[in-house]
From TrEMBL:
This is SnoaL-like domain-containing protein. Residues 6-126 form the SnoaL-like domain. It comes from the Archaea. SUPFAM superfamilies: NTF2-like.
């Protein structure tokens, strides 16, 4: 039997991931950064890594914002496991987008997240995205 606290933690972690998606797509980078632990990390597997709030904010402002004029992070198939004050999550990502150059496309990848409870709230310890597919659909905005 699953404990009620475990179910509550899974719901909170799922909501955290959804807030992550909404914040980055809305350009609310301060909220997005605040979802990470104080010394959290954002990793694009095989590409680059950003450690701590300042570097994560730099990624949002300088890399992500420059790449997309529109994006919609859609995460599915969550597998969340909780162990006391830490947790892991795995999600598929589908990302339709409009690039800053006006190209339409979509990306598909997998998020591997680690979480920890910090200041009585769940936060991302590490978000790692591994991209699997990137398709430009042609045409512009």
């Amino acid at each position: 039997m699953v404990e009620d606290t475990h179910v509550q933690d899974v719901l909170e972690l799922t909501q955290l991931k959804h807030r992550y998606c909404h914040a980055i797509d809305d350009g609310d980078y301060e909220t997005w950064v605040s979802l990470f632990a104080d010394n959290g990390s954002f990793v694009r597997a095989g590409v680059d890594r950003y450690d701590g709030h300042d570097e994560i904010r730099t990624f949002a402002n300088d890399v992500f914002d420059a790449a997309f004029s529109y994006s919609a992070h859609i995460v599915t198939n969550p597998v969340v496991e909780v162990s006391n004050e830490t947790a892991t999550g795995r999600w598929y990502l589908f990302l339709p987008y409009l690039s800053s150059e006006g190209e339409r496309g979509w990306k598909q990848g997998v998020y591997e997240d680690t979480f920890r409870r910090e200041h009585d709230k769940w936060r991302f310890e590490t978000v790692t995205i591994s991209m699997r597919e990137d398709r430009t659909l042609g045409g512009t905005g």
